[in-house]
């Protein structure tokens, strides 16, 4: 009989797991630390997360032991993707009222109250000091006090983003847009209507609701046309895509613009040795099905050009970078409110296994401006070798 | 003490392997049958091949026990690829005289004499009945009688090709172009000069020799210019590329045209669920380095367009195929001289694990015309699911 680890014991207590489940949990070795011990996180005594799905519990599920007891924060569920709109909505939304919300291009954050303060948890289930600092500046605790145990699921969007920096929203700093309000313990979401009421009452920014349709075999043509128009408008503005949700939140499906697919490809091919082949192929497949469903000959020609440029140009740019003696890297500018959070954030990146360089470049309006640089060592070394005459396969 | 299998024993006897090597060979389980028992292969008593490299012995190495004794046929060595011409030739050919031969787009065949007859062995080391039939029609045994134990390494090229069918050579049937003459047992190649003499003497078709350069730091500019011109001319004609060989055959490097890279991509993306992501990425990487080394802005723009079309158009074609109720497949027309070889060839494809349909479509000039169809089940099923509304990831 093995004594369960403190982490497993916490999960067992929080989720009321039978002994056999605890043993499986130990065996699978999928529990990780979710937090760095630090005064900034003073409400939290200990916190662990699931690094993989476990039974009904999503990857990224976190258990916090706070000064007031145990808090369960379920992982944000994976939203499945449509590749063709018409058959997918008929199959999955037939007879349902469905809203189309904008899928914003940032990183997924769950905001919870633990003890006296707010905490921001990223997708994989780590409490992020940078995001937590921002969240405490943007939100008060009113909503959380009225709805204990609930979490706000948000997209963190803007240029000052350590994970997904985006320029298209006109946000220089980082802002949070709520897309779901969920019970942290059960993961049950509020209906779209209630979410909107709550956002109004507590002054929360919601991701834009762009349309509403009723999907039936007789309205399907109009539905597809409307969704296509919404997606095309987003595409023109360089936005990422939509999430379709039936108003009771029983089904959700996402769909992305060509602009987003190409953005992903530009990123992946710029760092082609760091990024998975599957990541690349899946974006190309999305473009192919979108082209099949909507393109006439001219649009397809234009899409081919766009796709080719999204793939080739960033690779050539990276080759030129290495050829001129520099390293291939990604740089973002972040703004911290205190040196304490900055130091903690560095530790956080190390915990996440990120290979980075960080430098303070200035102080303005009480904010510390830093440059975060992630060196893409694999891509740099690969290119450098080839430019010295190394062979491939 | 385990008794070695008949296959291992044959390898042991042919290669004079010590007992420990035979044991390793058994353990690794990399010996496969190289032949189907059949009167057409009457000279061969038994034949086995290496499915993986083993020590110095290449993948595709075959041992034949014939009516006259044992014949060793070494696997054709992997030729490494340059991604940038200038640094690669300086690094690998400095001070050497180098010829540029055309790399033709077909399949690699080693021709050997075993017993009284010629046999054609494909890359992986399988004696192919279709190719053997053609070889016996195209070659007499004069060369092999004068050079016992030698093999002719050829590219089998043309439209009637069961493995790589190509239209660009104006060859309706299948023809063989010699690129190496090698000692079957040691794999030692003859020099370029001797190969040319032998080809003249025995009336063999050689792959075209397109140029000769002397690589030194002071001639490097001219070398790169000349190679680039050769490659561009091949590219204009839709040809595959070149193999650079120093005249003594101590180093060989290959390099492909953009036309070939895009051809590969068209093929891979048409059957995107069958083909490896690595296959796709490697072709894209080749284009990026070629663009970096040679393109001005206009050429790069044109290359992006070409690349985008090579990727997207075939995928959309496959989607349209499935959408119209058909299956995604590859069809080639082959010509057999006898029904016996046809039947044997079917067995051969099964041995190779190919999923195919074959149909006799006519008889003309003593030849049996058949249509060979390889159904791409994975791609077909994937597309079909998505067109019915299935989701991705």
List keywords for this structure.
homodimer; 393 residues; alpha+beta; 4-stranded antiparallel beta sheet; 39% helix; globular
What does this molecule look like?
2 copies of one chain form a homodimer. With 393 residues, the first copy, chain A, is an alpha+beta fold. Chain A has 12 helices and 16 strands. Chain A has a 5-stranded mixed sheet with strand order 5-13-12-6-11. Chain A has a 4-stranded antiparallel sheet with strand order 1-2-3-4. In chain A, helix 1 crosses helix 2 (19-28) and helix 10 (297-323) packs across helix 12 (377-387). The mean pLDDT of chain A is 94.
Topology, element by element:
The structure is a homodimer of 393-residue chains.
Chain A: H1 6-15, H2 19-28, E1 31-33, E2 44-50, E3 62-66, E4 69-73, E5 80-81, H3 85-93, E6 97-103, E7 107-114, E8 117-122, H4 129-138, H5 142-146, E9 150-157, E10 175-183, H6 192-202, E11 209-214, H7 220-236, E12 241-246, E13 252-256, H8 258-270, H9 277-294, H10 297-323, E14 329-336, H11 339-352, E15 356-364, E16 367-375, H12 377-387
Parallel strand pairs in A: 5-13
Antiparallel strand pairs in A: 1-2, 2-3, 3-4, 6-11, 6-12, 7-8, 7-9, 9-10, 12-13, 14-16, 15-16
Helix pairs in contact in A: 1-2, 3-7, 8-9, 8-10, 10-12
Brief overview:
The structure is a homodimer of 393-residue chains. By secondary structure, chain A is α+β, with helices and mostly antiparallel strands. Chain A has helices at 6-15, 19-28, 85-93, 129-138, 142-146, 192-202, 220-236, 258-270, 277-294, 297-323, 339-352, 377-387, and strands at residues 31-33, 44-50, 62-66, 69-73, 80-81, 97-103, 107-114, 117-122, 150-157, 175-183, 209-214, 241-246, 252-256, 329-336, 356-364, 367-375.
């Amino acid at each position: 009989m093995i004594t369960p680890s403190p982490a497993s014991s916490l999960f067992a207590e929080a989720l009321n797991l039978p002994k056999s489940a605890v043993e499986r949990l130990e065996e699978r070795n999928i529990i990780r630390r979710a937090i760095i011990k630090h005064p900034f996180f003073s409400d939290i005594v200990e916190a662990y997360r699931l690094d993989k799905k476990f039974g009904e519990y999503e990857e990224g599920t976190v258990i916090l032991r706070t000064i007031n007891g145990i808090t369960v924060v379920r992982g944000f569920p994976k939203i499945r993707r449509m590749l063709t709109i018409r058959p997918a909505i008929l199959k999955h939304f037939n007879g349902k009222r469905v809203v189309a919300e904008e899928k914003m291009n940032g990183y997924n954050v769950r905001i919870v109250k633990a003890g006296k303060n707010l905490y921001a948890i990223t997708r994989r289930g780590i409490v992020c000091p940078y995001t937590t600092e921002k969240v405490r500046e943007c939100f008060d605790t009113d909503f959380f006090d009225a709805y204990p145990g609930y979490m706000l699921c948000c997209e963190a969007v803007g240029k000052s983003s350590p994970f997904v920096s985006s320029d298209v929203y006109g946000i220089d700093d980082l802002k949070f847009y709520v897309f779901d309000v969920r019970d942290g313990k059960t993961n049950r979401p509020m209906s779209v209507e209630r979410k909107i009421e709550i956002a109004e009452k507590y002054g929360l920014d919601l991701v834009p609701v762009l349309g509403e349709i009723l999907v039936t075999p007789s309205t399907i043509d109009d539905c597809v046309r409307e969704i296509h128009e919404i997606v095309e408008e987003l595409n023109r503005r360089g936005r990422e895509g939509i999430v379709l949700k039936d108003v009771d939140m029983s089904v959700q499906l996402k769909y992305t613009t060509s602009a987003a697919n190409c953005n992903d490809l530009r990123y992946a091919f710029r760092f082609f040795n760091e990024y998975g082949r599957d990541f690349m192929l899946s974006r190309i497949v999305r473009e192919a099905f979108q082209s099949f469903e909507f393109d006439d000959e001219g649009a397809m020609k234009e899409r081919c050009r766009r796709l080719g440029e999204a793939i080739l140009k960033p690779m050539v740019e990276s080759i030129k970078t290495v050829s001129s003696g520099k390293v291939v890297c990604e740089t973002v500018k972040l703004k911290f409110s205190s040196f304490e959070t900055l130091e903690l954030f560095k530790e956080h990146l190390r915990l996440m296994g990120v290979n980075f360089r960080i430098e303070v470049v200035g102080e303005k309006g009480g904010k510390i401006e830093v440059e975060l640089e992630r060196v893409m060592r694999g891509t740099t070394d690969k290119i450098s070798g080839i430019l010295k005459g190394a062979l491939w396969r």
